[in-house]
Amino acid sequence: MNFLKTFQSIEKNKLINLLILFLCALFFWISLTCLLPTLPAYIQDIGATAKQVGYVMGCFAIGLLLSRVWLGKLADDGLTQLIQQIKLHSTISKFLTRTLRKLIGRLVDYPSRKIVIIIGTLVATIAPIGYLMLNSIPELMVIRAFHGVSIAAFTTGYSALVVDLSPPKQRGELIGYMSLAVPIGMAVGPAIGGFLQEYTNYQVLFAFSSGSSFLAFFLAIQIREFESSSKQGKNSHIISSKRDKSNDRTFKQIIFNPSFFVPTLILLLIGSLFGALVTFLPLYLRYIGLTLNVGLFYTTAAIASFVVRFISGQASDKHGRGIFITISIMCYVLSMILLTFVQSNNILLLSAILEGTGAGMLVPIILALISDRCSATERGKVFAICVSGFDVGVALGGPVLGSLLLDLGYRFLFAVTAMMAIIAFIIFISFSNKDMVNSWRFAFGDAPDLYKIIDN
Hints:
Blueprint: H1 2-8, H2 12-33, H3 39-45, H4 50-85, H5 90-104, H6 113-133, H7 137-164, H8 171-178, H9 181-199, H10 202-222, H11 236-241, H12 251-255, H13 258-288, H14 294-319, H15 322-340, H16 345-372, H17 379-405, H18 410-431, H19 436-443
Helix pairs in contact: 2-9, 2-10, 3-4, 4-5, 4-6, 4-7, 4-13, 4-17, 6-7, 6-10, 7-17, 8-14, 8-16, 9-14, 13-16, 13-17, 13-18, 14-16, 15-16, 15-18, 18-19
């Protein structure tokens, strides 16, 4: 089987790191997704209105946005350079650096995806306990924003480290395989969350979420980020971490570069769709009277996502990223149209299959696309900026779309999300490459990516 040959071709130390990373991600996503079908209902059960549920859930994205760029710089530069860039007094900088070296050793001096992953899992361990201890709406908004830091840290560090460990010619394939932790976690997490909500109580649910993240935290500590390079020479990791960065782009240059702006805009629109889905789907199903456990929607979507990730990453390495991003956006369009007019459990599950298929292709292949377009030394920054588009979308999808559209009905709200997916499709086929003609051809698999950096 192809995937076995791919993993057999990777050196042993890198393979061990990838296995630890995968298990770490699995427990992390189980922790997060067990709250997807349950947290909106919990917030409503303690007295919140539908709009207040949207405000609390949307605060997750605030934590993401406020921390994502800083965490991206940390992943690229290491703590020493980050402390120096903050322009603290030299005495304070030296004291902080010495203290951090005692705590985490030489990792303080080098780009550290591991530190960022540890931060993410630690925050995800603490946050679920906060939902039980703080139960007023303002307090829940604060703890939800804090919880958002977890996914900002984890996804930035995880994505960058997976790409670091992946040979360029197999990058899409390995990102696809490693991202399987997301649909597996989403298949298991919501089902467990729905079960615990129905047959136990919220205390057990939040304890489970915290415990799962603690397992991810324990595994993150075991990652040996520079171990694989030790065979190449005692100081090889120092050399690789201090490569020439003179050609790296600034944050401003990255943000306004069309090669990154379009993927970021696509993620913004799809993130808005996803934010509305996560926030209002449980309440929508209550409103229209469908009896299907909402956790089964997420589980069905996750199974579809799992299946498509298994094949789409490798296929995108051979046939180009564009055609698969186009297909994924069309899946979102169809899913949201079905959800707008849903009146039966079967149609709801079909919508879940299409949404899962879209997610399974879009996220890992856009990660592969933007990694094709940047150098290794700016990868953390680029990932942080581009994925922030998704974060902003999640923020809009919850409180903003809810405030503007909820009075017009749930069906109208989901009709707007379908329009967002259509707009994303039009933008991608028109502006994904250096000109409109090549964009159209790239989007349908008939032209190369002209923004790609060779041998990065």
